[in-house]
Amino acid sequence: MGSLFILDVPENRPVVETADEDPRVTVRKMGPYFAVASDEPFSIDRRATGCRHAVWYSCIAGLAGLRITQWDKDKLAMENR
Description:
By secondary structure, this protein is α+β, with helices and mostly antiparallel strands. It is about 20% helix and about 45% strand.
């Protein structure tokens, strides 16, 4: 299972909350980060998060076992390596 790590700061919470709405995704707290994990490809819609572009493009703290297939002004898409 691959994971996307997002720093637990108020600005990033909408990204985590939107990801958590996807039934394929599991979100758990790991130290100062949220680990957003899935065995299946998943995506997060930027407009659904309400994040501005600066927050959107700086929300990822790390990846483990995932690769980004799309990260633009509309969507962040991930799949397992």
